[in-house]
Design goal:
Helix content is 31%, strand content 12%. By secondary structure, the protein is an alpha/beta fold. The chain has 2 domains: 226 residues, Rossmann fold (3-Layer(aba) Sandwich), CATH 3.40.50; 123 residues, Alpha-Beta Complex (DNA Methylase, Chain A, domain 2). β1, α2 and β2 form a beta-alpha-beta unit. The two termini are 42 Å apart. Its EC number is 2.1.1.37. It comes from Acinetobacter bohemicus. This is Cytosine-specific methyltransferase. GO terms for molecular function: DNA (cytosine-5-)-methyltransferase activity; DNA binding.
Amino acid sequence: IFSMISSLFFSDPYVNYLSFFSGALGLDLGLERAGFKPLMYCEFDKKCQETIKQNQPDVPLLSDIRNYSAADILHEIGLSDTDQIDLVVGGPPCQAFSTAGARRSFEDERGNVFIHYLQIATDLKARYIVIENVRGLLSAVYKPSEHDEISLKDAKGTALEYVVKFLESKGYGVSFNLYNSANYGAPQIRERVVIIACADGSKAPYLNPTHSQNSEFGLKPWNTVREAISDLTPEKNQACAVFPEKRLKYYRLLKSGENWRNLPEELQKEAMGKSYYLGGGKTGFLRRLNWDKPSPTLVTSPTMPATDLAHPEEDRPLSVAEYARIQQFPDHWKFAGKLVDQYKQIGNAVPGDLGYAIAQAIINHDQGNDIKPPE
């Protein structure tokens, strides 16, 4: 009995975690909603740092991860190397893998930050390590400059393989999958790779979906743009980018859920210019959101021509407040910087519900309740 009592007395009632590449804290909001307690945020971007300070002034904030070792980090937050770290979480910059940028992968300066993150997380001996990243990580190449065109194809996925082998070499069990945030309650189609590593060598289960496209498997239906933004007042939407007039003239002809393909043929060519003759779906051009579906993936600006994010009815892009709702930030959350900085911070975030689902998977695994997703 004494040993039981002592373990109860000496174990903390909450799960602690360290957050790296914290951004505007989208993922963190989900973890914290599940009861996880942040011991530290680490973020390099100055505007994101301001956002963090405005919203979470009491949590220690470090800047560039490259300036710290695991020992430095423990020292900064007042812990010793005998203190238990439950979770280390981070989405190392994805530009190195993102399909939106050239894939230099791990040789890119930012790719090295990825390896530094793995080193710190394993040196801290965290019980769980979570890595969140873009879909491009699945096909990213480790050291692409060592390959020619032909061998580059065979090398696809070697960056992910490197990450998994690195974690396994330190005794971690690793599971990973590609998840669509809409299946976890976010009003947005947003795919993210989530890697969960467990220090005891076991493999965490996959995240359990709570929503599905047409309520399949008895799950709730996907949340929609209407549910996310329709109650925002015009005052709340004042912080908003503008479309150039030459794009607006086409938007006036498009309804909710439509894009350039819904214009009359002669206007399609005029609106698209040279892009009309390019291959590919091009569905992001002159795109109005559909009220009754989740939003497409939010990007760092709602007015980039190939990924337009226009309001379902009004002749304007999504406002900052609408962006924040779709990424599941609470209405009181403050974003630092100019309009362009605010869109960028929100567009780079992870929806809170995906963070919450990650937390639930860790709690279930830790308590031995490995729940199987619906067949």
